[in-house]
Amino acid sequence: MTLKSKRKHNMFFTYLIIVLIGIILLYPIAWMFFATFKTNDEIFNSIKLLPNSFSFQNFIDGWNGSGRVTYATYFLNTFLLVLPTVIFTIVSSCLVAYGFARFKFPGKNILFALLISTLMLPNAIIIVPRYTMFSKLGWINNYMPFYAPAILACYPFFVYMLIQFLRGIPRDLDESAYIDGCGTFRTLVSILLPLMKPALFSAALFQFLWTYNDYFNSLIFINSGSRYTISLALRLSLDSESVVNWGKLMAISFISVTPLFILFFAAQKYFVEGIATSGLKG
């Protein structure tokens, strides 16, 4: 067997293994999709993947919700919470990372060590003082407990990731921009931000996923059904019926995760590139 033939065989088996692993990983999603067309009896008493018949009634019933509020409201609430949080996080984290990566100022090392140390604080420790503070500010049952930390760059993971990425960008670009008459802010906007696109996309995708799927913080800070997000609405649908219609629940769950699939595959290139290059230098 020639070397070229060996390479073709190795490539064939490599792709075969990848396809098999992909099928295994995608099977739960496929099962959830086909379960949206099934009744409770089919879900629990049959191992068949395909349903006996295809009916969209579970999607209709699921979308109508369990009360006066439909899932259109829950989706709107979710995006009203998630999108500003993502935007505020990216802007504030980028500014803070730019300061740490490119400037020298008194106490920089101490502040950076303090920033990194906050990564080790679990949410369970800070949730009580955060709730007390936000309650005194009158921010309970609205989205300010999510907006305020994002505006103030209280997500050290993203700050650290962007710092590492900025450290990998040569300072010569900054100096060239200063020579051409750019100030510090214009250098960031015109020179560095286009180069930071992969890291910014990765940070935005992470924050979108985490905030979209967040159940605990939404449960703590939101107590009105009309302001519920998708994660709270799904739990409400589960608790509101004595006999759970799992087909209906699977239908609305599938609709809920669809934006995440679309976002991940649309931004996959930037996501992988940003993760791969954020920690190479520094």
Descriptive key words:
282 residues; mainly alpha; MetI-like fold; disordered C terminus; MetI-like_sf; L-arabinose transport system permease protein AraQ
Structure description:
The chain is mainly α and about 280 residues long. Helix 4 crosses helix 8 (about 155-165). It is about 75% helix and about 0% strand. It has helices at about 5-35, 40-45, 55-65, 70-100, 110-115, 125-135, 145-150, 155-165, 170-180, 185-195, 195-215, 215-220, 230-240, 245-265, 270-275. The two termini are about 45 Å apart.
Strand and helix map with partners:
Elements: H1 3-35, H2 40-45, H3 57-64, H4 71-102, H5 108-117, H6 123-136, H7 144-151, H8 156-167, H9 172-179, H10 184-195, H11 197-213, H12 216-221, H13 230-239, H14 246-266, H15 268-277
Helix pairs in contact: 1-14, 3-14, 4-7, 4-8, 4-11, 9-10, 11-15, 13-14
